[in-house]
Specification:
By secondary structure, the chain is an alpha/beta fold. The protein contains nine helices and ten strands.
């Protein structure tokens, strides 16, 4: 007889400030996030079964960017994986690892030091096809402007883009379905479901007017047998540019969401999705029990979209 699977709970979290920090190394930032997370969960590292990190080699300027932080995340002689995508997608990976039954407690860590990159323009260009798109100087900013122009049905100017700001930081979350660890927290934050979808890479082959946000949300809702977001109180959106807000607000209206929309403070790449989740945790509760949606994205113009649906009991 199959036993009922215990849901994944979020039992600890900590973030460094999201700011330009040339003095601190990646290792120092990650260590602060990990130590703070274990302390907030009242958990020893010996109780962690598996570690998942989120980073990209281009940002760190080294091949296999997770190698530099192996010791400080405690991955020596333990299972470890690296996700080269937004930190929220790494958290979704952690939830799947726990659901598999192979692990009970997983540490998720995302980091990025934007201040170490000489040229964000060159870094952006590198992600595009070198034969057709790079000669056109097609980059992330151009792709976002085209996407928004298609949505509005009119050309928009590059002046709408947010000022370029270099931010550094690390953030860590501890996920577990171990009842002994969960009971150490008064507040219960459990994962209802997760979903990730990836669109085609070439911008010319995408439906820029619609995107895939609604699809990925519906995929997550299907797992809990719901059709829309009417039962959800809060949504935190991780967007690249502030002018993208209208794009996601249109989708949320179609999904019958009438709660509070949260636009988190700017965070470094790789950290934005977990930053959205953190902003939900730090928001003022509207009720004792709430349902939340956290959103993260990776790739060119949101090529990959990920969502986590959560249920929260703030306690007595």
């Amino acid at each position: 007889m199959a036993t009922e699977q215990r849901p994944t709970h979020l039992i600890g979290w900590h973030s460094t400030p999201f700011q330009r920090d040339r003095r601190s190394t990646v290792v120092e930032l990650v260590l602060k996030a990990v130590e703070g997370t274990l302390k907030s969960a009242n958990v020893n590292h010996s109780e962690v079964d598996y570690i998942i990190t989120s980073s990209v080699d281009l940002w760190d300027g080294r091949t296999a960017s997770n190698i530099a932080i192996t010791e400080v995340v405690g991955a020596i002689m333990k299972g470890e994986a690296r996700v080269a995508a937004d930190g929220l997608i790494a958290a979704i990976h952690a939830d799947m690892a726990i659901r598999s039954g192979n692990y009970q407690t997983v540490l998720v860590v995302a980091h990025c030091k934007e201040s170490e990159v000489d040229s964000l323009q060159k870094l952006s260009e590198w992600t595009f096809d070198p034969l057709y798109l790079q000669p056109l100087k097609y980059d992330q900013k151009a792709s976002l402007l085209i996407q928004e122009s298609v949505r509005r049905g009119e050309t928009i100017e590059s002046s709408l883009c947010d000022p370029e700001e270099r931010l550094d930081g690390a953030i860590a979350f501890l996920l577990s379905n171990n009842p002994d660890l969960i009971d150490r927290k008064k507040e219960r934050i459990s994962f209802l479901s997760t979903a990730v979808l990836t669109d085609v890479h070439y911008p010319g082959k995408r439906d820029f007017a619609r995107g895939i946000f609604s699809q990925v949300v519906k995929k997550a809702l299907h797992e809990i047998q719901e059709e829309d977001l009417t039962s959800f109180e809060k949504v935190a959106l991780s967007e690249v540019q502030s002018f993208q807000r209208g794009f996601y607000q249109d989708h949320l209206r179609d999904l019958h969401f009438e709660g509070t929309q949260i636009f988190p403070p700017k965070a470094p790449f790789m950290v934005r999705g977990l930053g959205a989740l953190l902003s939900l945790i730090e928001s003022d509760p509207r009720a004792r029990r709430e349902r939340w949606l956290a959103h993260g994205q990776s790739g060119v113009s949101g090529q990959s979209e990920g969502v986590v649906l959560l249920e929260v009991d703030h306690g007595a």
